[in-house]
Structure formats: structure tokens, C-alpha cells
Design goal:
6 helices
């Protein structure tokens, strides 16, 4: 959606494109486009935070040790995932 607006904004303008898209049921606000443009059309802070958290949950050395201990205790993968989330929050 953002790529479409970027491609045609010089010809039609960003806000008119957003208005037409909204009229046809697409939920996009001009402020969303401008916020995306301000950060260079890259990932949002939330998306970056999610990637970092997931990476820590899967690949961190402390997590590997934690998972090994829980496996040795006979826990299932589902139980370990649930406890791992709690472990990271602490």
C-alpha cells in the first residue's frame, strides 16, 4: 500500500490517494503514510522490538541453558515456551 502511494504521490498527491483508498474501504490515513515516510519507510519501533525479543527468546545463551534445564526436568515444549516468556519478562 505504501509502495503504491510512494509511486503515484508525485502525480496525484499523497493525501488525495489516501482519501480515495479510504473511500473504497482501505484503512490508511495520511498521517500513517507520513510517519512511515519520516522513518525512511523502514520497520516501526514495534517491529524492531519484536525482532529483538524473538531473537533473545530463541538464540540467547542464557535461554539455551534455561531450555536445557527444563528439558532435563521433563517439561514439554509448550510448557518451556510459556515459562521462557515469563523468564524473559523478569
Amino acid at each position: 500500500m505504501i509502495a503504491y502511494i510512494r509511486e503515484y504521490r508525485d502525480r496525484f498527491g499523497g493525501e488525495p490517494i489516501c482519501a480515495v483508498l479510504c473511500a473504497h474501504g482501505t484503512q490508511i490515513d495520511p498521517s500513517t503514510f507520513h510517519a512511515d515516510q519520516d522513518r525512511g519507510f523502514g520497520p516501526s519501533d514495534r517491529e524492531l522490538s519484536d525482532v529483538i525479543t524473538i531473537d533473545a527468546m530463541v538464540h540467547g545463551p542464557d535461554i539455551r541453558d534455561y531450555v536445557e534445564c527444563r528439558c532435563a526436568d521433563g517439561m514439554t515444549d509448550r510448557e518451556i515456551r510459556r515459562l521462557r516468556k515469563r523468564y524473559l519478562v523478569r
